[in-house]
Amino acid sequence: QFEWAWQHPSSSHRLLAPPPRRPREQPISFALRLLPRLLRAPPWSRLPLRLRWLRPLPPHSQLEEAPPPHVVLEEGAGPPRLKRKKGRGQEEGEAAMLGCGLCEEAMATPLLRCPRPFCKMAAHPPCLARLFLAPEPQQLLPLGGACPGCHAHLLWGDLIRRCRGEAEPEEEEWAEPDDVILPSSAPT
């Protein structure tokens, strides 16, 4: 649906007022100008999407408007799709026995964990979603929020991907516990 709306902005009902193509504007330039607006339109405005540029954009092709802050921008072909590690289920089963750090109940649901190495926060997805959605009670899908353990800003999509084994913890240095880590919304 996103791709169709992107290719047919004037026919799509997702953009109320799509911008017209400028005289002599290349189709790719128009598509890049349209992209941030489409990412801010429902139903995609709350989805944990990733924009991956296979090669760096030329300076004249940079996005005029930044995508929403919860949309992660990446460059390169990306890491290969990872398979779940053997023994992960046993580790999750032991963690589930300990229970959720928010409701303190044990359920069969896999726990979401903070990716910071020193943070021991683990919570059920519904419990953490309620915490992240407290400032936005009318929404169904959280964008992100502060970790209850270390107060780092976490993106909901990254937590879910990590829980499902689709992403490994990044080998980056984390800031001190008092620092708040905000997602980058500017293209690099």
Automatic annotation (TrEMBL):
Domain of life, per lineage: Eukaryota
Biased composition (Acidic residues): 168-179
GO molecular function term, any single one: 5'-flap endonuclease activity
Keyword Nucleotide-binding: no
Keywords: Endonuclease, Hydrolase, Nuclease
Structure-specific endonuclease subunit SLX1 C-terminal domain ranges (all copies): 100-160
Gene Ontology CC: Slx1-Slx4 complex
Protein name: SLX1 endonuclease
Lineage: Eukaryota, Metazoa, Chordata, Craniata, Vertebrata
